[in-house]
């Protein structure tokens, strides 16, 4: 892409990463041999790579929400992914990006916030830590999520059909799905996970994402039975989304969320929306995700 010269490069002995200040988006992740692990954002399929979702995750009913009786409008996943973040600090292996409330965000989201995203590579692990800080005098309400898309198949010679996602625990709870306009459907559906394994197939995503709203696991591994795999750790996330475009798209998104789309018919205050958290004045909420290459 033409603006790639502005991306921040990080490196460890095992990984290379590049982050685009537009959206503080992880845009390249390679192993030490130069194999691409992350989706490349091909606009013919999906322009995203690993967007940060803030101040909402998913769709709002009618594209709007209410705070203290006032109505505001936001598109799916919020505005952070379309904003240029300040590069606060960068070294060979770490970088800190910041987005602050300003005159462009306040008409959309009436809170004084500071959104920091810190990336760090150490050996085979990339850690991504998102800080939502309340710099105002009133209680702040928000959701946040991380939406990384990994190559499917991974670049290690195994067929797409050999790939699965393995959870650290059994996942017997039903999952949730989205309706045709992206709202949370009321009917829960049986879990597609069997013996801790989700066997990946395009048919799983005919109705959009798989949403685990009661996951026991706080870590999953992705890949084929043989060869390198990727582990995604999400200790702070009560939701996990798994998504791809359902007609052979060459990526799979494993998405830790602190938040979820509006349920069908939801019209309450933003603070009553499922998954929304609050931060006291001067406080901070933290969400960490780890991406580790397992060889």
Helix-strand pattern, N to C? Answer: EEEEEEEEEEEEEEEEEEEEEE
Kindly report the spatial arrangement of strands forming the biggest sheet.
Answer: 7-8-9-10-22-18-17-14-15
Estimate the helix proportion, in percent: under 10%
Low-confidence stretches: none
Tell me the CATH topology: Beta-galactosidase, Chain A, domain 5
**CATH level 1 class label:** Mainly Beta
What coarse outline follows from CA principal-axis ratios? globular
**Biggest beta sheet attributes:** 9 strands, antiparallel
Structural class, please? mainly beta
Provide a descriptive summary of the structure in words.
Helices cover 0% and strands 40% of the residues. The mean pLDDT is 97. A 9-stranded antiparallel β-sheet has the order 7-8-9-10-22-18-17-14-15, with no helix packed on it. Strands 4, 12, 13, 16, 19 and 20 form a 6-stranded antiparallel β-sheet that branches. It has a 3-stranded antiparallel β-sheet with strand order 1-2-3, with no helix packed on it. The protein has strands at residues 8-11, 15-20, 25-31, 52-53, 64-67, 70-73, 86-90, 94-100, 113-122, 125-134, 140-142, 144-146, 149-151, 163-167, 197-199, 210-212, 219-224, 229-233, 239-243, 251-258, 277-279, 284-294. The protein has one domain: Distorted Sandwich (Beta-galactosidase, Chain A, domain 5). It is mostly beta strands.
